[in-house]
Amino acid sequence: MPLKKKSIESARSLTCYCDGSCPGNVSNGTCETRPGGSCFSAVEEIYDESTGTYEEERTFGCMPPEENGGLLMCKVAAVPHIHGKNIVCCDKEDFCNRDLRPAYTPKMTTPAPELPVSSESMHTLALLASIVVCLSVFIVIVFILCLTYKRREKLRKQPRLISSMCNSQLSPLSQLVEQSSGSGSGLPLLVQRTIAKQIQMMRLVGKGRYGEVWLAKWRDEHVAVKTFFTTEEASWFRETEIYQTVLMRHENILGFIAADIKGNGSWTQMLLITDYHEVGSLHDYLSMSVINPQKLQLLAYSLASGLAHLHDEIFGTPGKPAIAHRDIKSKNILVKRNGQCAIADFGLAVKYNSELDEIHIAQNTRVGTRRYMAPEVLAQVLNPQQFEEFKRADMYSVGLVLWEMARRCYTPISGTKTTTCEDYALPYHDVVPSDPTFEDMHAVVCVKNFRPPIPSRWQEDDVLATVSKIMQECWHPNPTVRLTALRVKKTLGRLEPECLIDVPMKIV
Fold this sequence. Notes:
Elements: E1 15-18, E2 29-32, E3 38-48, E4 53-63, H1 70-75, E5 85-90, H2 119-157, H3 173-180, H4 189-197, E6 200-207, E7 211-218, E8 221-228, H5 233-243, E9 256-263, E10 268-275, H6 282-288, H7 293-311, E11 322-324, E12 333-335, E13 341-343, E14 350-353, E15 358-361, H8 375-378, H9 387-407, E16 411-412, E17 419-420, H10 438-447, H11 462-474, H12 485-493, H13 498-501
Antiparallel strand pairs: 1-2, 3-4, 3-5, 6-7, 7-8, 8-10, 9-10, 11-14, 12-13, 14-15, 16-17
């Protein structure tokens, strides 16, 4: 191909040798520059993955005009600090780049000089590395143990959801409670909330200072729903906490089913769902009915049995703390269909753990019922740091409740075929107003040391005579000589035991 002289006045195109950078990837070909362009020859260090080494690679081709960057690209190789890449350009004649061989300068691969390391430094580094590894292993082990412990605690406190909850046909409440947990701490929380949402209120059956009690229905089963006023949140929380206590369930303690809080932003409703006993409270039952000595014995025995379980601390895993009720009265005791008592209302209860020597007193403004307060409570000399004093105060209240029972127990009039009993009355009904003040009760019980009267007819029947003796020992002014719930239970149990055996003991 004839050579073309470059004109000074006007730029011209060049024909260049191209290899590795040809238009259309043509090997050993040619390319033509735009006017003002130049030919180039380049060398570059390329990494070969197959051999794992750096090799030089040369390319030839056409460079764009200077105004499009050609000049800058051709001058870049003049920078002294660049290694591993070089380029040379020419524009004197066609194919001027064929014999150009720019110098190849490989990149710096010389490793940095190693610093001398002493044997002492090596030992120190090895020791530090060992400590770091040991600490890491220790932290991992502790983390795994914590996770395992938390999982076990969660499984223990919140038993697994009963499989029948997944079906449309749920088991009866009695079966749910029996299947839910062997610890006697109630249903799983998720089951409780499910039941609470499905409750259908039927009618109001009672009202008190804490709230209201409703007869409700859950899947064709009757339940009692206690709704708390918003001001009685502490009572709801405490009662729920007591009912959730491990090993709390007992045939003479009101059966707990569920607890939940409902709200829509403008109001909040706190619910406590328990077994329903249509007979009602002991107060209502005695107001409307009379009982024979055998029924009196069963009522008194079951009351003592429930309170003994409450007062008793069970050691083991799981264990049960000792619990004092602090508001024993006839309105807080329900009568079951089988004639037994069931203790209810634990809003003021106190828990005690002897291993930790801790007494958990409810943060509640309620102080109990003044009519049933023990002398040491009225005199404000009860030591809250001694749990036994709370139990003794409970036993004083039990003595008054036994007196209410005994008044309604009829006995035959000697020489006739008729029977007699006293009208129902509250303790101290004849010496204090219907709603006595703290001062009224203190004057009667502490100052005058007055106690409810014991009719002479009670001594004519073995059961009544025994119960009257028990109640007098329970309300003794000296708390330390009062009977315990367990002693009352054993005393009544030894009295004609066939009376208790004939009555079915199954929970209704």
